[in-house]
Amino acid sequence: MALCLATALVHVLLVFLHVAPPNPLSRQYSRQVNAWVFPLFEQNWRLFAPDPESVNRQISARTMHTTPDGRVRVSGWFDLSGVDNAAVRHDVFPSHTAQNMLRRAWSSYLETHGGDDRPRSERALMMQKYLTDIAADRITDHGGGTFESVQLRVITVPIAAPAEGPGPGSSAAAPKSVETRYLPWWKVTSHGN
User: Which InterPro entries does this one have (predicted)?
Assistant: First the structure.
């Protein structure tokens, strides 16, 4: 009983230090706090003030395999986002995982890598591996065959702002152009692959 109480108190303290404004205590123990909080207990305010998506992202992956005779085979693109959308569509109670795993993995990757795809922290490496594993698992689940590397392509399509209604002064801003981003080839650890 005492162990449970102590663990609960330590958990509450560490999560509090994570969500509290920066202070000397949270700075001093940031490494320990982050080790406890990430990735299972991450806290943010999106539940109370959600930030609606302003873009649609299509995340696709392709694989690379070297044959025994030394030839390199590259597969076609496999639509990971399409798999997620199909899992959610027509499901009265879709799982949180089916709806958000890939999207949240990509958002976290962007937060940790920026625009140059270079990991600068342990968390960045963890997010890169997480994204790679999601892609490899989904490709394998859909009969992707044997492969050693995976590459992701993210097509970002802006969602146009709604028009303010009919009238002489109303006009919707022109949407930004479609962006396509190719990530580097990443080695895949053998997990039934």
Answer: DUF5819
